[in-house]
TrEMBL record:
UniProt similarity note: Belongs to the acetyltransferase Eis family.
Residues the entry annotates as binding acetyl-CoA: 95-97, 103-108
Keywords assigned: Acyltransferase, Transferase
PANTHER family: N-ACETYLTRANSFERASE EIS
Stated name of the protein: GNAT family N-acetyltransferase
Active site location: 136 (proton donor)
Length: 433
Protein backbone atom coordinates (compact mmCIF):
# COMPACT_ATOMS: atom_id res chain seq x y z
CA UNK A 1 0.00 0.00 0.00
CA UNK A 2 1.32 3.46 -0.87
CA UNK A 3 0.98 6.70 1.05
CA UNK A 4 -1.32 8.09 -1.65
CA UNK A 5 -3.99 5.54 -0.69
CA UNK A 6 -4.24 6.81 2.88
CA UNK A 7 -7.24 8.95 3.83
CA UNK A 8 -6.52 12.68 3.85
CA UNK A 9 -6.02 13.34 7.56
CA UNK A 10 -4.12 16.47 8.65
CA UNK A 11 -0.94 16.48 10.74
CA UNK A 12 1.02 19.41 12.17
CA UNK A 13 3.42 21.17 9.80
CA UNK A 14 6.62 19.23 9.22
CA UNK A 15 5.06 15.78 9.72
CA UNK A 16 3.65 13.26 7.27
CA UNK A 17 2.13 9.79 7.38
CA UNK A 18 3.92 6.95 5.64
CA UNK A 19 2.79 3.38 5.10
CA UNK A 20 5.36 1.03 6.61
CA UNK A 21 6.85 -2.15 5.17
CA UNK A 22 9.01 -4.99 6.37
CA UNK A 23 12.14 -2.98 5.52
CA UNK A 24 11.10 -0.55 8.29
CA UNK A 25 11.25 -3.19 11.03
CA UNK A 26 14.35 -1.78 12.71
CA UNK A 27 12.90 1.75 12.77
CA UNK A 28 9.61 0.39 14.14
CA UNK A 29 11.32 -1.57 16.90
CA UNK A 30 13.50 1.44 17.76
CA UNK A 31 10.47 3.70 18.15
CA UNK A 32 8.70 1.06 20.20
CA UNK A 33 11.63 0.98 22.63
CA UNK A 34 11.52 4.79 22.87
CA UNK A 35 7.76 4.84 23.52
CA UNK A 36 7.75 1.83 25.87
CA UNK A 37 11.16 1.64 27.61
CA UNK A 38 12.60 -1.86 27.91
CA UNK A 39 15.84 -3.57 28.90
CA UNK A 40 15.77 -5.35 25.54
CA UNK A 41 18.49 -4.12 23.16
CA UNK A 42 17.46 -3.02 19.67
CA UNK A 43 19.57 -5.73 18.00
CA UNK A 44 17.69 -8.31 20.06
CA UNK A 45 14.27 -6.71 19.54
CA UNK A 46 14.49 -6.94 15.75
CA UNK A 47 14.86 -10.73 16.11
CA UNK A 48 11.49 -11.01 17.87
CA UNK A 49 8.37 -11.96 15.95
CA UNK A 50 6.37 -8.95 14.73
CA UNK A 51 2.63 -9.29 15.37
CA UNK A 52 1.36 -6.58 13.00
CA UNK A 53 0.52 -7.09 9.34
CA UNK A 54 2.42 -4.48 7.36
CA UNK A 55 -0.68 -3.48 5.40
CA UNK A 56 -2.06 -1.93 8.62
CA UNK A 57 1.11 -0.33 10.02
CA UNK A 58 1.47 3.44 9.58
CA UNK A 59 4.36 5.64 10.67
CA UNK A 60 4.83 9.39 10.98
CA UNK A 61 8.02 11.01 9.71
CA UNK A 62 9.30 14.44 10.80
CA UNK A 63 11.39 16.84 8.75
CA UNK A 64 15.03 16.70 9.84
CA UNK A 65 14.49 13.76 12.19
CA UNK A 66 16.25 10.44 11.66
CA UNK A 67 13.79 7.65 12.36
CA UNK A 68 10.07 7.50 13.05
CA UNK A 69 8.38 10.20 15.12
CA UNK A 70 5.32 8.04 15.77
CA UNK A 71 3.50 4.94 14.58
CA UNK A 72 0.31 2.97 15.03
CA UNK A 73 -1.28 -0.14 13.60
CA UNK A 74 -4.34 -2.31 13.96
CA UNK A 75 -5.35 -5.95 13.89
CA UNK A 76 -8.09 -7.13 11.53
CA UNK A 77 -10.46 -8.82 13.95
CA UNK A 78 -13.12 -10.25 11.66
CA UNK A 79 -14.81 -12.13 14.52
CA UNK A 80 -14.66 -9.73 17.46
CA UNK A 81 -17.24 -10.85 20.02
CA UNK A 82 -20.27 -8.63 20.52
CA UNK A 83 -23.44 -9.63 22.39
CA UNK A 84 -25.01 -12.43 20.39
CA UNK A 85 -22.47 -12.56 17.59
CA UNK A 86 -19.34 -11.07 16.06
CA UNK A 87 -18.49 -7.94 14.08
CA UNK A 88 -15.43 -6.84 12.09
CA UNK A 89 -13.35 -4.63 14.36
CA UNK A 90 -10.15 -2.64 14.04
CA UNK A 91 -7.97 -3.60 17.00
CA UNK A 92 -5.91 -0.44 17.53
CA UNK A 93 -2.40 -1.19 18.77
CA UNK A 94 1.27 -0.20 18.79
CA UNK A 95 0.37 3.46 19.30
CA UNK A 96 3.62 5.22 20.17
CA UNK A 97 5.23 8.65 19.93
CA UNK A 98 8.94 9.41 20.28
CA UNK A 99 9.60 11.51 23.44
CA UNK A 100 10.99 14.34 21.30
CA UNK A 101 7.68 14.67 19.44
CA UNK A 102 5.14 14.49 22.26
CA UNK A 103 2.39 17.08 22.79
CA UNK A 104 2.27 18.12 19.14
CA UNK A 105 -1.00 16.53 18.06
CA UNK A 106 0.45 13.35 16.52
CA UNK A 107 -1.78 11.04 18.57
CA UNK A 108 -4.85 12.96 17.43
CA UNK A 109 -3.80 12.56 13.81
CA UNK A 110 -3.19 8.83 14.24
CA UNK A 111 -6.56 8.24 15.87
CA UNK A 112 -8.33 10.21 13.13
CA UNK A 113 -6.53 8.19 10.47
CA UNK A 114 -7.31 4.91 12.21
CA UNK A 115 -11.02 5.74 12.45
CA UNK A 116 -11.13 6.83 8.82
CA UNK A 117 -9.53 3.56 7.74
CA UNK A 118 -11.98 1.56 9.89
CA UNK A 119 -14.83 3.26 8.04
CA UNK A 120 -13.21 2.50 4.68
CA UNK A 121 -12.83 -1.17 5.61
CA UNK A 122 -16.38 -1.54 6.88
CA UNK A 123 -15.34 -2.06 10.51
CA UNK A 124 -18.14 -0.59 12.63
CA UNK A 125 -16.08 -0.91 15.82
CA UNK A 126 -12.62 -0.10 17.05
CA UNK A 127 -11.24 -1.64 20.23
CA UNK A 128 -8.03 -1.35 22.23
CA UNK A 129 -6.18 -1.95 25.47
CA UNK A 130 -5.22 1.37 27.03
CA UNK A 131 -1.67 1.70 28.33
CA UNK A 132 -2.86 4.81 30.19
CA UNK A 133 -6.55 4.91 31.09
CA UNK A 134 -7.17 8.68 30.81
CA UNK A 135 -6.03 8.97 27.19
CA UNK A 136 -8.64 7.37 24.97
CA UNK A 137 -11.90 8.62 26.42
CA UNK A 138 -11.40 11.95 24.68
CA UNK A 139 -11.32 10.09 21.37
CA UNK A 140 -14.68 8.41 21.99
CA UNK A 141 -13.48 5.09 23.48
CA UNK A 142 -15.39 3.81 26.50
CA UNK A 143 -14.17 1.26 29.06
CA UNK A 144 -16.33 -1.66 28.00
CA UNK A 145 -14.91 -4.56 30.03
CA UNK A 146 -12.92 -5.42 33.12
CA UNK A 147 -10.86 -8.46 34.05
CA UNK A 148 -9.94 -9.91 37.42
CA UNK A 149 -6.49 -11.01 38.55
CA UNK A 150 -6.05 -13.42 41.45
CA UNK A 151 -3.27 -14.61 43.73
CA UNK A 152 -4.35 -18.02 45.01
CA UNK A 153 -2.54 -19.75 47.87
CA UNK A 154 -1.38 -23.27 47.19
CA UNK A 155 -3.99 -25.80 48.16
CA UNK A 156 -6.80 -23.26 48.33
CA UNK A 157 -10.13 -24.91 48.94
CA UNK A 158 -12.28 -25.47 45.84
CA UNK A 159 -15.91 -26.55 45.79
CA UNK A 160 -16.50 -30.00 44.37
CA UNK A 161 -18.20 -30.33 40.98
CA UNK A 162 -19.80 -33.55 39.75
CA UNK A 163 -17.79 -35.03 36.88
CA UNK A 164 -14.54 -33.24 37.67
CA UNK A 165 -12.84 -36.48 38.73
CA UNK A 166 -13.73 -38.04 35.37
CA UNK A 167 -11.13 -35.83 33.65
CA UNK A 168 -7.61 -36.90 32.84
CA UNK A 169 -4.75 -34.42 32.95
CA UNK A 170 -1.82 -33.89 30.57
CA UNK A 171 1.03 -31.50 31.47
CA UNK A 172 3.67 -30.73 28.85
CA UNK A 173 5.98 -28.18 27.29
CA UNK A 174 3.72 -25.90 25.26
CA UNK A 175 4.37 -25.51 21.55
CA UNK A 176 2.44 -24.38 18.52
CA UNK A 177 3.26 -27.60 16.71
CA UNK A 178 1.79 -29.78 19.45
CA UNK A 179 -0.92 -27.55 20.89
CA UNK A 180 -1.73 -24.76 18.43
CA UNK A 181 -4.84 -26.40 16.99
CA UNK A 182 -6.10 -27.53 20.40
CA UNK A 183 -5.66 -24.10 21.98
CA UNK A 184 -7.26 -22.37 19.00
CA UNK A 185 -10.25 -24.70 19.01
CA UNK A 186 -10.91 -24.50 22.77
CA UNK A 187 -10.30 -20.74 22.87
CA UNK A 188 -12.85 -20.20 20.10
CA UNK A 189 -15.38 -22.45 21.83
CA UNK A 190 -14.93 -20.59 25.12
CA UNK A 191 -15.85 -17.35 23.38
CA UNK A 192 -18.85 -18.84 21.61
CA UNK A 193 -20.30 -20.77 24.60
CA UNK A 194 -18.66 -19.75 27.87
CA UNK A 195 -21.48 -21.33 29.86
CA UNK A 196 -21.97 -24.24 27.48
CA UNK A 197 -25.34 -22.80 26.44
CA UNK A 198 -25.94 -21.87 22.79
CA UNK A 199 -26.76 -18.22 22.17
CA UNK A 200 -24.81 -16.83 25.11
CA UNK A 201 -21.33 -15.82 23.93
CA UNK A 202 -18.67 -13.74 25.67
CA UNK A 203 -18.51 -10.20 24.22
CA UNK A 204 -15.03 -8.76 23.80
CA UNK A 205 -13.57 -12.22 23.11
CA UNK A 206 -11.27 -12.16 20.10
CA UNK A 207 -9.15 -14.79 18.48
CA UNK A 208 -5.58 -14.48 17.29
CA UNK A 209 -6.79 -14.52 13.71
CA UNK A 210 -3.67 -13.76 11.65
CA UNK A 211 -0.51 -15.74 11.05
CA UNK A 212 1.53 -12.87 12.51
CA UNK A 213 -0.46 -12.95 15.74
CA UNK A 214 -0.18 -16.72 16.02
CA UNK A 215 3.58 -16.65 15.50
CA UNK A 216 3.97 -13.88 18.07
CA UNK A 217 1.73 -15.61 20.62
CA UNK A 218 3.62 -18.88 20.45
CA UNK A 219 7.10 -17.35 20.43
CA UNK A 220 8.69 -18.24 23.76
CA UNK A 221 11.71 -15.98 24.02
CA UNK A 222 13.65 -15.86 27.32
CA UNK A 223 13.39 -12.04 27.33
CA UNK A 224 9.64 -12.34 27.95
CA UNK A 225 9.74 -14.99 30.69
CA UNK A 226 10.49 -12.70 33.62
CA UNK A 227 12.94 -15.21 35.08
CA UNK A 228 10.42 -18.04 34.83
CA UNK A 229 10.63 -21.36 33.03
CA UNK A 230 9.65 -21.91 29.41
CA UNK A 231 5.90 -22.00 28.73
CA UNK A 232 4.02 -25.12 29.89
CA UNK A 233 0.47 -26.31 29.30
CA UNK A 234 -2.14 -28.24 31.29
CA UNK A 235 -4.85 -29.96 29.25
CA UNK A 236 -7.86 -31.61 30.87
CA UNK A 237 -9.82 -34.21 28.89
CA UNK A 238 -13.02 -36.12 29.41
CA UNK A 239 -13.56 -39.31 27.47
CA UNK A 240 -10.56 -38.43 25.32
CA UNK A 241 -12.00 -35.02 24.41
CA UNK A 242 -10.05 -31.89 25.44
CA UNK A 243 -12.30 -29.72 27.64
CA UNK A 244 -9.90 -27.10 28.96
CA UNK A 245 -6.33 -25.84 29.01
CA UNK A 246 -4.08 -23.43 30.84
CA UNK A 247 -0.75 -21.93 29.81
CA UNK A 248 1.61 -21.32 32.71
CA UNK A 249 5.18 -20.77 33.88
CA UNK A 250 6.73 -21.56 37.27
CA UNK A 251 9.58 -19.96 39.17
CA UNK A 252 11.38 -21.68 42.04
CA UNK A 253 12.81 -19.56 44.84
CA UNK A 254 14.53 -21.01 47.90
CA UNK A 255 14.53 -19.37 51.30
CA UNK A 256 16.07 -20.48 54.60
CA UNK A 257 12.90 -22.27 55.65
CA UNK A 258 12.24 -23.96 52.30
CA UNK A 259 10.98 -23.53 48.73
CA UNK A 260 8.85 -20.52 47.83
CA UNK A 261 7.96 -21.25 44.22
CA UNK A 262 5.22 -19.49 42.27
CA UNK A 263 3.07 -20.34 39.26
CA UNK A 264 1.94 -17.68 36.77
CA UNK A 265 -1.07 -18.59 34.60
CA UNK A 266 -1.21 -16.52 31.41
CA UNK A 267 -4.41 -18.00 29.93
CA UNK A 268 -6.96 -20.48 31.27
CA UNK A 269 -9.99 -21.80 29.41
CA UNK A 270 -12.57 -24.42 30.41
CA UNK A 271 -15.73 -25.38 28.57
CA UNK A 272 -17.84 -26.36 31.60
CA UNK A 273 -17.78 -26.36 35.39
CA UNK A 274 -16.41 -29.89 35.72
CA UNK A 275 -13.51 -29.09 33.39
CA UNK A 276 -12.83 -25.85 35.28
CA UNK A 277 -12.70 -27.72 38.59
CA UNK A 278 -10.33 -30.30 37.16
CA UNK A 279 -8.11 -27.62 35.64
CA UNK A 280 -7.85 -25.36 38.68
CA UNK A 281 -7.31 -28.33 40.96
CA UNK A 282 -4.02 -28.81 39.13
CA UNK A 283 -3.06 -25.15 38.83
CA UNK A 284 -3.29 -24.36 42.56
CA UNK A 285 -1.34 -27.37 43.78
CA UNK A 286 2.08 -27.65 42.12
CA UNK A 287 4.87 -29.00 44.30
CA UNK A 288 7.43 -26.51 45.73
CA UNK A 289 5.07 -23.58 45.21
CA UNK A 290 3.25 -21.28 47.60
CA UNK A 291 0.87 -19.47 45.27
CA UNK A 292 -0.61 -19.25 41.78
CA UNK A 293 -1.21 -15.90 40.11
CA UNK A 294 -3.50 -15.32 37.16
CA UNK A 295 -3.43 -12.74 34.41
CA UNK A 296 -6.66 -11.94 32.53
CA UNK A 297 -9.78 -13.73 33.72
CA UNK A 298 -13.42 -12.71 33.26
CA UNK A 299 -14.84 -11.17 36.42
CA UNK A 300 -17.38 -14.02 36.41
CA UNK A 301 -14.88 -16.78 35.62
CA UNK A 302 -15.74 -20.16 37.11
CA UNK A 303 -12.76 -20.09 39.46
CA UNK A 304 -14.16 -17.03 41.26
CA UNK A 305 -17.13 -19.21 42.26
CA UNK A 306 -15.15 -22.41 42.80
CA UNK A 307 -12.92 -20.85 45.45
CA UNK A 308 -14.29 -21.49 48.93
CA UNK A 309 -12.65 -18.26 50.10
CA UNK A 310 -12.48 -15.91 47.09
CA UNK A 311 -11.50 -13.02 49.35
CA UNK A 312 -8.21 -14.78 50.15
CA UNK A 313 -7.31 -14.76 46.45
CA UNK A 314 -6.81 -10.98 46.66
CA UNK A 315 -8.95 -10.16 43.58
CA UNK A 316 -7.86 -7.07 41.65
CA UNK A 317 -10.23 -5.75 38.98
CA UNK A 318 -8.52 -3.96 36.08
CA UNK A 319 -9.85 -2.31 32.93
CA UNK A 320 -9.76 -4.66 29.96
CA UNK A 321 -11.11 -3.78 26.49
CA UNK A 322 -12.09 -0.25 25.47
CA UNK A 323 -14.61 0.10 22.60
CA UNK A 324 -15.40 2.88 20.16
CA UNK A 325 -18.37 2.87 17.77
CA UNK A 326 -17.18 3.92 14.33
CA UNK A 327 -20.56 3.34 12.67
CA UNK A 328 -23.27 3.83 15.30
CA UNK A 329 -26.17 2.39 13.29
CA UNK A 330 -24.16 -0.59 12.06
CA UNK A 331 -22.79 -1.40 15.49
CA UNK A 332 -26.14 -1.14 17.32
CA UNK A 333 -27.89 -3.28 14.69
CA UNK A 334 -25.02 -5.78 14.74
CA UNK A 335 -25.53 -7.09 18.28
CA UNK A 336 -28.36 -8.76 20.18
CA UNK A 337 -30.16 -7.44 23.26
CA UNK A 338 -31.20 -9.12 26.50
CA UNK A 339 -34.69 -7.61 26.49
CA UNK A 340 -37.18 -6.22 24.00
CA UNK A 341 -36.30 -2.62 23.25
CA UNK A 342 -37.63 0.28 21.19
CA UNK A 343 -35.73 3.42 22.11
CA UNK A 344 -34.52 6.61 20.44
CA UNK A 345 -30.95 7.51 21.40
CA UNK A 346 -29.33 10.87 20.68
CA UNK A 347 -25.57 10.45 20.23
CA UNK A 348 -22.88 13.14 20.21
CA UNK A 349 -19.50 12.46 18.57
CA UNK A 350 -16.93 15.24 18.31
CA UNK A 351 -14.35 13.19 16.36
CA UNK A 352 -16.77 11.63 13.85
CA UNK A 353 -19.51 14.24 13.31
CA UNK A 354 -21.15 11.93 10.75
CA UNK A 355 -22.03 9.66 13.70
CA UNK A 356 -23.87 12.39 15.59
CA UNK A 357 -27.65 12.23 15.52
CA UNK A 358 -30.68 10.42 16.89
CA UNK A 359 -31.10 6.70 16.27
CA UNK A 360 -34.11 4.49 16.77
CA UNK A 361 -33.05 1.08 18.03
CA UNK A 362 -35.60 -1.74 17.84
CA UNK A 363 -34.94 -5.34 18.83
CA UNK A 364 -36.62 -8.45 20.16
CA UNK A 365 -34.99 -10.22 23.06
CA UNK A 366 -32.04 -12.30 21.72
CA UNK A 367 -33.26 -11.63 18.19
CA UNK A 368 -32.41 -9.38 15.27
CA UNK A 369 -32.07 -5.65 15.73
CA UNK A 370 -32.58 -2.64 13.49
CA UNK A 371 -31.18 0.84 13.95
CA UNK A 372 -32.07 3.86 11.82
CA UNK A 373 -31.55 7.60 11.99
CA UNK A 374 -34.69 9.50 12.85
CA UNK A 375 -35.75 13.13 13.08
CA UNK A 376 -37.69 12.58 16.30
CA UNK A 377 -37.24 13.56 19.95
CA UNK A 378 -34.79 11.32 21.83
CA UNK A 379 -35.67 9.10 24.78
CA UNK A 380 -32.04 9.06 25.94
CA UNK A 381 -28.95 11.11 25.10
CA UNK A 382 -25.29 10.31 25.61
CA UNK A 383 -21.86 10.67 24.04
CA UNK A 384 -20.36 7.98 21.82
CA UNK A 385 -17.86 7.29 24.63
CA UNK A 386 -20.64 6.13 26.97
CA UNK A 387 -22.25 4.16 24.17
CA UNK A 388 -18.94 2.34 23.73
CA UNK A 389 -18.74 1.68 27.46
CA UNK A 390 -22.21 0.08 27.47
CA UNK A 391 -21.92 -1.66 24.10
CA UNK A 392 -20.57 -5.05 25.24
CA UNK A 393 -23.06 -5.36 28.08
CA UNK A 394 -20.57 -4.99 30.91
CA UNK A 395 -21.39 -1.39 31.90
CA UNK A 396 -24.94 -0.41 32.81
CA UNK A 397 -26.53 2.58 31.12
CA UNK A 398 -28.26 3.21 34.44
CA UNK A 399 -24.92 3.35 36.25
CA UNK A 400 -23.65 5.82 33.65
CA UNK A 401 -26.78 7.89 34.16
CA UNK A 402 -26.15 7.91 37.90
CA UNK A 403 -22.79 9.51 37.12
CA UNK A 404 -24.45 12.16 34.94
CA UNK A 405 -23.21 10.63 31.69
CA UNK A 406 -26.58 9.51 30.25
CA UNK A 407 -29.71 11.67 30.26
CA UNK A 408 -33.23 10.24 30.27
CA UNK A 409 -35.83 12.33 28.43
CA UNK A 410 -38.71 9.83 28.40
CA UNK A 411 -39.63 8.32 31.78
CA UNK A 412 -38.93 4.59 31.85
CA UNK A 413 -36.67 4.61 28.80
CA UNK A 414 -33.48 4.29 30.86
CA UNK A 415 -34.59 1.18 32.73
CA UNK A 416 -35.72 -0.55 29.54
CA UNK A 417 -32.58 0.32 27.61
CA UNK A 418 -30.27 -0.59 30.49
CA UNK A 419 -31.87 -4.03 30.75
CA UNK A 420 -31.64 -4.55 27.00
CA UNK A 421 -27.99 -3.51 26.69
CA UNK A 422 -26.94 -5.91 29.46
CA UNK A 423 -25.68 -9.43 28.76
CA UNK A 424 -25.76 -12.70 30.75
CA UNK A 425 -21.96 -13.04 30.97
CA UNK A 426 -19.24 -10.45 31.52
CA UNK A 427 -17.31 -9.19 28.49
CA UNK A 428 -13.54 -9.65 28.28
CA UNK A 429 -10.57 -10.41 26.05
CA UNK A 430 -8.28 -13.16 27.36
CA UNK A 431 -5.13 -11.59 25.88
CA UNK A 432 -3.68 -8.12 25.41
CA UNK A 433 -3.02 -6.84 21.92
Amino acid sequence: MHTSTLPDVPLPDGYRFRALAEADLRAVRDLDLWAFPSATALDEAVQHSFPLGWDRAIGIEAEGFDGLAALHGSYPFRRFGVPGGTLPTGGLTWVGVHPQHRRRGLLTGMIDLHLARCRERGEPLSALFAAEAPIYGRFGYGKAADDVRLTIARGAGLHEVPGADEHTVRIAHASREQHGDLVGRLHRAAGERPTGVAGINRPGWCERETEELQAHFWADLPAFRGGRESRRIVVVERGGEPRGYALFRRKLDWETFGPRGTTAVSEAVALDAAAARALWGVLVDFDLTVETSTFLLPVDDAVTRLLMNPRAAQPRVVDNVWVRLVDVAGALAGRQYAADVDVRIAVTDARLPENAGTYRLRARVFGEATCDRVAEPADLSLDVRELGAAYLGGTSLAALAAAGLVTEHTPGALATAAAAFGWPVAPMSSWVW
